[in-house]
## 1
Amino acid sequence: MEKRNKKQEKLSDFSDRSTSREFSAGGVVFKKAKEEKSRKKRVLWLVTKSSPSKIYPKSYWRFPKGWLDDEYGGKKPGALARGERKATEKEIQDAALREVQEEAGVKAKIIKKIGSERYFYKIKERLITKFVTFYLMEWQKDLPEGFGSETSKVEWLVYDEARKKLLHSGERKVLDKAEESFRFGNSGKSVIIGAQGEVA
């Protein structure tokens, strides 16, 4: 009899259970900061630590992201997030900017779309496939109200440190793409970033 690998077993565990899709958006936010002593510019990346929840009882580091829309005061995904209607690009961008404000407490502007990542999680007997569209964003200012209750901590880190913090491998890939697109920019010109995030 042919042996199944662990991934096949995990997916087959859900074959007889109900499944659903969700659509979300988020931001990979960077800012350029000058060091006080050397006055060199550094590129820092924003990561947020989640607050414990029913689905994720342990806190973990991630990028700010969330449903395209919601219902019942944020307790359930809305029609766009459930995929009942295809969202426009503007609706996806607006959701990403909103989530960055709510979960990170910052205002940012979108530079470009990075791409989408897929996540799997379950609630009781239901498997949910979540598709998240991420955008590269540049920090503009901190908001006076700070971050919301879904976040317990926010940090600005250089690329290597931010990458180590992120729990999901998909988000590490997103950071890789963001950092690469930042290095070369939309014009194709190279921007040299050192190991500690310094800009040459």
## 2
Amino acid sequence: MTKLMDYLPDYYQGVREMDRLLNGEQLTLDELETFVRQFLSNQFVTTADEAGIKLMESELSIIPNSTDTLQQRKNVILLRLLPPAAITWPYFKQLIQNLNIPIDLQRDVIKQTVSAMFYNRLPTSTEIKQLQYIFNTLIPANMVTKLFTPTETQVSFKQYYGIATVIQVETVVNAKGAN
């Protein structure tokens, strides 16, 4: 923050009235600097606070979910404000990475499919909505999109082990007196 005492001319050094006047004005200047910093940071999505994001959402007619975090709300705004650009595969993958959506993207040009696999966790509803929006707006209409999510299951099987033996017995009777 700017200190007014640093700008005090030499001939006013030690004058009590000037010291008190500058100390009183310092509070007003600090409030003004705080307001200007907040105003400037709210001009950009990545540095905006809650109030700035709320204003941007109302300008873009975005209705946030009550469970969305501030970062998720920023990502939704960034998706809406994307400039038109050539959609190449590296650009598309970089966009997903910049939005911090932990998926593995794969495409099959022959089958015309794009597959997205989440890493080791279930996605949130906001992440799924963001991916649906990205897929619907950036991927060509003739391509099929697939979203895979990992699941955990527990299954208990009872296994029984046993041994079966087959014994072939041939009985030979040699009795005396028999024909």
## 3
Amino acid sequence: MTLLGRPVIVITLGKGGGPSSGERSHKRSRPNDVGDSSGGDGAPGGIRQVVRSMLRAQKLGVLVPLVYDADVISGKAVMEAVAGPRLGDLLAAAVAEPESASGSGAEHEQRQVEPAGAGAVAETAAKTALKPLPPELDRAATFLGRTLAKLHDGGQVHNDLRGETVVLREHDGAVVLTGFNRSFNTIVALDKAQDLAALETALLEEAAAAQQPQLAASFATQVFEKVLSSYRSSSHLWSATHNKLAEVRRTGARQQEQQQQQAIKRAKRDAEEAASEEEGEKGVIAHS
């Protein structure tokens, strides 16, 4: 889809725009914070929030897609379609490289029995020898850290950071943030820490679904650590965010441990029920 010869996309809030029409649907979050006094899911407040968040980020020096037009009545906005790979694409390409794709049958078998999930893959990756990041990933992580430092120091969080919302512009490799439908303004260090932690979790979850989860998690971990390193050197408010990030990580680890324990209990209970049913069937057959 083009506008005056320029590639564009149309985002639609609550209208269900599909890929065949060149439109993307965005759901609104935090309805009480987006300027709609009714607090409902009406399009005017939602599209207004998305565009305002993008323009605010742009004023802070963050690269975002250009907004060519926004209609608060229909809830549609025409935006620049930024050409270039996404961070998730770079991670997938790094894992799929010929020299990285080879693996032994033992490794493949091990992947089959390992528990799924971001936490399990991250733990396995920590025990695996790290391969150096490809130059393009290293550069992207550095730029992303600087970008997030600008955004957070300016009092705004993205709130939907993942491989799909970070685009590396084609002609210069600059980081462009997309997907501002959940963004909001805040000066609270905990909100900024949660924004960073969400990126880490998203990258590891994407790694868990990769064909080579151990290698993908290794790259994802290195990317996030590079992001943090760049963020630390660029942010004037790093100390408070760092302290809260450690807190968020501890909370996440406890929650994950509880979920794993619950999963083990469910599996044990299901096994006991299956064994009980099997014994009951054997008893019926014996009496008949």
